[in-house]
Request: fold
Amino acid sequence: MSNRTFTMIKPDAMKNGHAGAIIDRFIKEGFRIVALKQTKLSEEKAGEFYAVHRERPFYGELVEFMSSGVIVAAILEKENAVAAFRELIGATNPAQAAEGTIRKLYATSIGENAVHGSDSDENAKIEGSFFFSGLEQF
Ligand code: ATP
Ligand code: MG
Reply:
């Protein structure tokens, strides 16, 4: 069990003006910010980040969407961070997300679902270092 996870606020939530409320929620739920930045993924970088989904029918759409606007990337720390954060964001499809979860509140569809959360400790490390050098993590 690790105490860090990686997240992105996706282009839909950025465009809809939810970044501030979402970051506030991270903090209120007890996640400490280890690293944080606004950036934009090229199609190539988005494709690399989501390479695990390369064979899925929605891959092209996902890469196009994730490179369509700015995002906020962050590394967050809390006990049992990966599982605790997945609980906070809710199900992939906002229609199935529990009341009060970030996706229930801010996502618009299964594809444009407001936030990313790592699915394992191993991927949290890989994804965090995809965006942040050691000098950017405190
Ligand atoms: P994320 O990895 O972004 O935190 P997740 O782990 O809940 O989301 P995954 O199965 O890893 O879900 O899918 C990655 C992303 O691909 C989803 O967040 C969503 O944006 C998109 N996606 C997943 N399933 C579909 C689908 N059926 N149609 C369109 N887009 C999808
Ligand atoms: Mg995932």
Observations:
- The longest helix spans residues 121-131.
- The CA atoms of residues 57 and 63 lie 12 Å apart.
- The longest strand covers residues 32-40.
